[in-house]
Every structure is written in C-alpha cells, then in structure tokens.
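Hi, here's the filled form for the chain we discussed.

Project: internal
Contact: R.S.
Residues: 87
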Amino acid sequence: MEKEIFTKSIIKEKEFGEKRISVMSRHTKEDGVTPDERIVEGVTFDEWQKDFAPPVKLIGAYYRKIEKKYHGKSSRKNILNFCEATR
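And the returned structure, exactly as it came back:
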C-alpha cells in the first residue's frame, strides 16, 4: 500500500491512523512567544521537525513586509492577498 503525503492545517485534529509531522519554526501565536493552544502534540501533530522550517528571522521579516504593505493589518485575508500578489 502506497502512503500519500499531503498538507493540512496544524490546528485541525488528526484523523484515525493519520501521522502528521509539523515543519513549522514555532508553535506560538503571532507574537512569537505565547504558545498557540490550538496546536497540541499528539492531538494535532505527532512529530515536530523544525529542521525543515524556515528560519525564524525570515518569518518575522515576511510578516513585517505584509504589515507594511497593509498598514499594520496582518489579517489572514491580507496575508493570503499578499501571497497571491507575490507569486
């Protein structure tokens, strides 16, 4: 039986038999310090492979660029618009 690899939101609970690996640089809220209570080891992911995540400095720079473009309003909608525009 072939195993499929796919992406899924880290805040959604795993399905039965699913193995999920997080490649996020951090599991915190936007402030970079406060743990995100929606991300729970064993419930939403099995393994955390930070080696595959982008550097934290790069993530911070990316968010600052978005906030500058949208005048400090880094909502999910604005982030998606920014990502679409920079493709």
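Let me know if anything looks off before we file it.
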